[in-house]
Amino acid sequence: MISIIISSVNKANLQQVSENIDATIGIPFEIVATDNSKGQMGICEVYNKAMLRAQYDFLCFVHEDVLIKTNNWGQKLLALFEQDPKLGLVGIAGSSYKPLAPSGVGGVGAYTHYHNLIQSFKYKKEKARHAYHNPGKQRLAEVVCIDGVFMATTREIAEEFMFDEITLKGFHGYDIDFSLSVSQKYKVAVTFDILLNHFSEGLFNDVWMEENLKLHNKWNKFLPIKACKLTAEQIFFIEKNTFKNFIDELIKFNYPITTAIKMLWKNRRFFQLNSKLFFKLKFHIFKKYIKSKPSLASYIW
């Protein structure tokens, strides 16, 4: 038996996903939905309060703009937890490496990403596609972070860690933060036995960046975290390109160069990964900012 927890902003979407769950889950369930259409609560607060209302021992946090395609998926989900007592959190998309460099669920590079979903688009003019990536060709891949579109755990684990509504008051970063917390004690995994259609892609904007910076400040001393074997060359590639992407995002959202420099110094453990990486990234910061804002050149030099 599973409690399905949903933060709702659209009654029609909630009705549609509720009917879909009823038709596909295959076991007793309840929908614990919270009307958050005015955005009066951050998603961490919504989820923490919903947990107190849930009556079952398994919890599944799901976005309302999805349709689950797999029949009897509830049975499949519970079987995963029954087969492995160390399993703490299951999703349908995630990464087995969370970089030191600020990022989303995972860094730049395909080595560590695992996902299985039909991705539809709300903000981009693109056709829906089956986003499938399973480099280890596993039915259940161990990761360190999962995406918040679908997150399943037990009541005991959810109550042990809770969602950090003090640090994260908006609608971003909650999934990564909760994943990293759970991964300190239990396994986090992506299942390839459950398929869903997600009707919107991630929206990466300045609000997302602000929450992401809070998240990385919180977890900095623990990063990088991995659940896979990577060569030194692969780690170098991921960290270098993830940090470069981070700089591009800072510039796009008009963050000052001081934000980039502070993050680089906070992440000076890059020295331990590769002695040249820190200096390469420092040079990259100046180069990109001067290119985007030539007036900075006289200030920097």
From TrEMBL:
Q: Which InterPro entries match?
A: Nucleotide-diphossugar_trans, StrF_dom
Pfam families to which the protein is assigned, alphabetical: Glyco_tranf_2_5
Q: Which residues form the Streptomycin biosynthesis protein StrF domain?
A: 5-208
Spell out the coiled coil positions from the record. Answer: none
Reading the lineage from the top rank, the first entry is Bacteria
Protein name (Swiss-Prot/TrEMBL)? Streptomycin biosynthesis protein StrF domain-containing protein
